[in-house]
Amino acid sequence: MKKLSILLALMLAISPITGYAAPETNNQANEQPSQEQSNTVENIENSNQPNAAVQPPVSKKQVKQIFSEAEEYEPGELVISFASTASEEKKQEILKQYDLTVESTLLNGNYILASTPRGDSIQEIAKELVQYKEIAYVQPNTKVKKSFVSQEPYYYKQWYLPKIEAPKAWDVTKGSSDVVVAVVDGGAQKDHPDLKNSIVSPIDMVTGSSDYIADNHGTHVAGIIAAAFNKYGTAGIAPNTKIMPINVFDGEYAETFTIAAAIEYAVKNGADIINLSFGDYAYDYVEDNIIQYAVKNGVVVIAAAGNEDTDLEFYPAAYANVIAVSATDRYDNVTYFSNYGKYVDVSAPGEGIMSTIAGSRYAVMDGTSMAAPVVSGIAALILAKNPFTTVGEVQTILKKSSVDYGNRGWDMFYGSGRVSAYKALTLTGSPISNFKSPSSFTITGKNRISVSFTAPKNTNLSVQIQNANGKVVKTLLSNKAWNGGQATVYWNGSLDNGSYATNGQYKFVVSFTSNKGNFRTYKTIPVKNTMPATVSAPAVTYYSPVAQSKLSLPINVSKPAKLTAQVVNAQNKLVKSIWSNASVSAGSRTFTWDGKNGNGKYMVDGTYKVIFTAVDANKAKSTTSASIVVDREAPALSVAAEPAVFVADGTNTSIARFNVREPAYVTVKVVSNQGENVRTLANNQLFSPSTYSLKWDGKNSSNVDVAVGNYQYVVECKDRAGNITTKATSFFALQR
User: Fold this and answer.
1) What is the structure's pLDDT at 14?
2) Rounded Cα–Cα distance for residues 71 and 108 (Å)
3) What pLDDT is stored for residue 251 in this prediction?
4) Which of 300, 478, 646, 666 is the most buried (most CB within 10 A)?
5) pLDDT tens profile 20-65
């Protein structure tokens, strides 16, 4: 079977580098973009994931052609694809008939790697297997070989970073630790100084272990994507990105089934992007299917176009839904070695690329193997800015943001053009989109405005109003579970403190949280309040000068105003002026009155009113009144205990009986003749005027029997003004 010539990159200069620090840039936060009334428009869900039905280029019965296209394959191993209609019993029957042992499976057993002791006869076995209707396809387990392209030494500057406008992109985002790029390749060095803090879920697919020998090629690819900004070594395109290193090589070869297993592993372990810097000119049915499985699950797949200056279709780059990358040089010319053809999607720098290699070293390499991770790094930046960007949208952004070279529009050498990290981010939308709000809001007290936006599904939404100082003054939505689509919220100008917004600039802040991170965006609009200033207060308040020295009445002023507060009696005669044209700001405050008139004498019990008059800056006037009931009289209370002798045998109870003649807060306690409180039967509980009976079973607050002796009930009654009456019953005897 045919060798898969894996890509590219002969190291021209390998030496430690300590002088190249990551570029210093400012990582500016990219702000992404229940209530009085709210309305949620129908949820709108869009998948946008590309879908392709995978069809092999030749019939399953053309076994000779399938095997002839592979120069190298594993002797004694077959990759078998079963039809969806095949029963498990029939599968096992076929495998047993040909003495096939299952070595591994993919996608719930639809693809099987099987071995046979017959060795070189696997092609003959394949000819027989394809006769079964239960068999969809059979192919050998082909091998992939790494190869490198020679290059001049001493390229110690990362010229390609400014070429793709990476520094400008870093002003938007340096990537996210929530974005994971799987590097399916030789195993990247896990403890390389530029990579050690970025590694997640490493694995050697050949051995199944997380340990492997570090590989120059895989380490170089990983460093292009995510070398850290640590003032040491090289700079990755998306330095905050996580790398999932997956080794698929055993020596210089990798088998296609191992590669397919690696892709499945990447998908199941949370990869967002898969970089494939290798390939071959032979189509592989299983590899194609597993890539489409990855794409269907929302994973961006990026692959190198090949390095042999040919237009032959090169796989996996030529599979549907894979972003195929050709290589350019520092002058934006397609390199002499880069493949080209109808399958090329974009181009990227791939000559003289400085990056990390095994042994904690650095080197320059050439190849489309280096161009592909440049694109993977940009894709990682796109997903960092908006992790809800679909595979199809990432593909479109990469193509539309590319700088057009060669023939106008798409061509077989550059694809849609040479990629640009910064331009890609400018085309990447916010997770919160279609944000619409009015340009201004004039509050009348009878109107409202609406704000609408589209947010992703599986998120929790919050919408707040902030004033010019950044303080949250109104919450319209709080952590609302959202299933995707358009949302609309309304605001009538009121604030959480009960007042209305004053004139000024206000922000509508929309934010959401999800397992992909936290995001926010906002719009600022000018607000004008034309409402008159108003005062809100409790309708009735009870006050006893005996119980408390001052009445404290909470009020709220809707906007800045000149405020007058006067206490009048039942005949509307002025008792006392508290405020006279006092300048007050909007919000909550406390009105106090000591119960005295203007001459310093206490007023008699009765009902009084405090009249609030507010005049705003526009001379608009409003009046509000609140009633104050002055009551010094303690509440009437009668109490009794029954029976005089209480036999606490577990069935009898003692009764505390009391009568209140006005609404009151009552506390009832059982007290021993030594003054010990043994049980509380009611604690500051509101009772309406009536007679009540509370039962006691002879147990204390810990539900333990009290000692034999004499007890009484102590009843405290507090009215709404705070006046208190306390009475105790006669002692009664508790016996057992």
Assistant:
1) 34
2) 29
3) 86
4) 300
5) 222 233 333 332 223 323 322 223 334 456 776 777 877 888 888 8
Residues designated as active site: 185, 217, 369
**Cα–Cα distance for residue pair 113/422, rounded to 1 Å:** 43
pLDDT at 347: 98
Q: How far apart are the first and last CA of the chain?
A: 99
- Is the CATH number 3.40.50.2000 carried by domain 433-528? no
SS3 content of the chain, % helix, strand, coil (to 5): 15, 40, 45
- Give start-end residues of each CATH 2.60.40.4070 domain in the chain: 535-630
- HSE-CB of 565 using CA atoms within 13 angstroms: 23
Which uninterrupted H or E stretch holds 568?
A: strand 561-568
* DSSP per-residue string spanning 401-422: TSBP-SSSS-BTTTBT-B--HH
What local confidence, expressed as pLDDT, does residue 27 receive? 32
Tokens of 620: 């608009």
Query: Is beta strand 472-491 parallel, antiparallel or unpaired with respect to 449-466?
Result: antiparallel
Query: Within the chain, which residue ranges are assigned CATH 3.40.50.200?
Result: 4-10+146-426
pLDDT score, position 593: 97
pLDDT of residue 82: 92
**637-735, what's its fold?**
Immunoglobulin-like (2.60.40)
Residues 557/590, Cβ–Cβ less than 8 Å: no
Average pLDDT across the chain, whole number: 88
Neighbour count for residue 15 (Cβ, 10 Å): 10
Both tokens of residue 626? 């609140």
- For the segment 412-438, what is each residue's pLDDT rounded down to a tens digit? 999 999 999 999 999 998 888 888 889
Cβ-Cβ contacts under 8 Å for 482 (sequence gap 6 or more): 455, 456, 457, 458, 459, 460, 461, 512
Give the model's pLDDT for residue 224: 97
Q: Is it true that domain 57-143 has CATH number 3.90.1150.10?
A: no
Tokens (6 digits) for 6: 């894996």
| Predicted local distance difference test score (pLDDT) of residue 156 | 65
- CB-neighbour burial class of residue 579 (10 A; exposed 0-12, middle 13-18, buried 19+): middle
Cα Dmax for the chain? 118
Return the CATH number of 4-10+146-426, one of 3.40.50.200, 2.40.10.350, 3.40.50.970, 3.30.70.20. Answer: 3.40.50.200
pLDDT of residue 461: 94
Compute the distance between CA of residue 486 and CA of residue 355 in angstroms, rounded to an integer: 44
Tens of pLDDT, residue by residue over 162-179, are 999 998 898 889 999 999
pLDDT in tens, 511-523: 988 888 788 888 8
255 vs 3: CA distance, rounded Å: 10
Q: Per CATH, the architecture of 535-630 is what?
A: Sandwich (2.60)
Burial tier of 688 (Cβ tally within 10 Å: 0-12, 13-18, 19+): exposed
Q: Where in the chain is the domain with CATH 2.60.40.2550?
A: 433-528, 637-735
> Following DSSP, what letter does each residue of 317-374 receive, concatenated?
TTSTT-EEEEEE-TTSPBPSS---STT--EEEE-SSEEEEETTTEEEEE-SHHHHHHH
| Cα distance between residue 616 and residue 449, in whole Å | 24
